[in-house]
Design brief:
Layout (H helix, E strand, L loop, with lengths): L28 H4 L46 H10 L5 H14 L4 H13 L3 H14 L5 H9 L3 H39 L8 H35 L8 H15 L4 H14 L2 H27 L15 H13 L3 H14 L4 H13 L3 H18 L7 H12 L8 H8 L1
């Protein structure tokens, strides 16, 4: 019922407690930058193609085992390669990977590849101090390469130190982007020229070849484009928070946003940071425009992902479309509610709940949508559903109970007969 309620016009401001979600810390651009993402998409109903050839374990019948006696043996994997295989396994074999990386560093203490991999592993495992020590060693050995170590160091730092690491990582990413762009465009032009000079009447027209070459270049550039935009969003956030007291913080925040948008104009992280910046400046209309642009970016990404999942495409080298992070979408919805753009927020929140109907964060935000729309009964329905999930799951879900209490009080402010939270819990039972 809460998902289908219609929006009503209201001039009431969005409640301040919308910004008090217990999971808000991890939704900041800095917190999301290197976090593993759950995809916000529907699963394709198209059945997978049967492309796999299953070979018998003992070889084909009658196969001559002596044929391969003279063949050269496969090269033995290095300790670093073995560690990477462990990390790429499902589930990742982190313990074994760590042991292999430590052995690799005993044999070659200045291997920056092993240091980078171990530092990232330690960071993901929550060993911040050890990760910082290892990554700083790598940064000292190879300061001009490997953006990832600087981005992890930024996550493990604060204030001006974090800014320095982000800036260094952004510089490396931009250099990699420019180098790859030049190389890819040159290769595409060479391929297009060679094809046009030897084309026959049965081959594809030159225009189609040029279009395909351009698409190939963009697919290779897209990951760097997205990562660079995320770094610039993180820099902008620093100037809105920890470095906000600097005299030129506002100008530097604007510069970071502009540089990121110049490379990736539809970045959800950047557009959401733009919304936050415009709200701080008191520019409500500009904040709304940026928020609606972010909504369009989310919808466009979802449509592209769904279209790709339905295509009968055998190009295994083509990367998947980057999908919006669910936490980033929820963060955008919080801004939309503050700006009274509740119909757009509800549409995105319903999409999140269609993907995961037990998403407590989405139920809380949906409830605030209905509070702003002067629909307290539907807001209380969201509270009831949220309380059921808290009781069912416990643990970290209990962190949402104070937020549900705030939501209930706000919903009851316009209700005829307010009920305490305990009464609603009893009704659920």
């Amino acid at each position: 019922a809460s998902a289908s309620a219609s929006a009503s016009s209201s001039s009431a401001p969005a409640p301040a407690s919308v910004a008090a979600d217990p999971s808000a810390r991890s939704r900041s651009p800095r917190g999301r930058l290197l976090k593993k993402r759950r995809f916000f998409r529907r699963k394709s109903s198209r059945a997978p193609k049967e492309n796999f050839l299953v070979l018998p374990q003992d070889g084909f019948e009658g196969e001559d085992e002596e044929e391969d006696e003279g063949a050269e043996p496969l090269p033995e994997l290095s300790l670093l390669e073995q560690a990477n295989q462990c990390l790429e396994a499902f589930p990742p074999q982190t313990g074994q990977a760590r042991e292999l990386l430590e052995r690799a560093l005993e044999a070659e203490p200045e291997s920056f590849e092993a240091l980078d991999t171990l530092g990232v592993l330690l960071s993901e495992e929550g060993e911040a101090e050890k990760a910082r020590e290892v990554l700083l060693r790598s940064a000292k050995l190879r300061p001009e390469a490997g953006a990832e170590k600087f981005l992890y160091l930024a996550q493990l730092s604060a204030g001006a130190e974090a800014l320095g690491h982000f800036t260094r990582g952004a510089s490396i990413l931009k250099a990699e982007f420019e180098a790859l762009k030049v190389a890819a465009e040159a290769a595409g032009a060479e391929r297009s020229t060679g094809t046009s000079s030897s084309s026959s009447s049965t081959g594809p027209p030159p225009a189609a070849e040029a279009t395909a070459a351009k698409a190939s270049v963009e697919r290779r550039l897209a990951p760097l484009r997205q990562q660079f935009a995320g770094v610039q969003a993180s820099i902008a956030e620093l100037y809105m928070t920890e470095l906000g007291d600097e005299a030129d913080a506002e100008d530097k925040c604007e510069a970071a946003l502009a540089e990121g948008l110049a490379m990736h104009a539809s970045s959800l992280e950047l557009l959401t940071s733009m919304v936050a910046h415009r709200k701080i400046q008191g520019c409500a209309d500009d904040a709304k425009a940026a928020a609606l642009a972010a909504v369009a970016a989310v919808k466009s990404a979802i449509e592209a992902a769904e279209a790709e999942s339905d295509e009968d495409d055998d190009d295994l080298m083509r990367p998947c479309v980057e999908l919006p992070d669910e936490e980033a979408v929820a963060g955008l919805c919080r801004h939309l509610i503050d700006l009274e753009q509740t119909s757009e927020a509800r549409e995105l929140l319903v999409g999140l709940l269609e993907r995961d109907e037990e998403d407590l964060r989405a139920w809380v935000l949906l409830g605030w949508c209905h509070v702003v729309e002067k629909d307290p009964e539907t807001a209380k329905d969201c509270v009831r559903h949220g309380l059921r999930l808290v009781k069912q799951h416990g643990g970290e879900s209990d962190d949402f109970k104070p937020e549900l209490q705030k939501l209930l009080k706000k919903a009851q402010a316009t209700a005829a007969a307010p009920k305490p939270l305990e009464a609603i819990e009893e009704e659920n039972e």
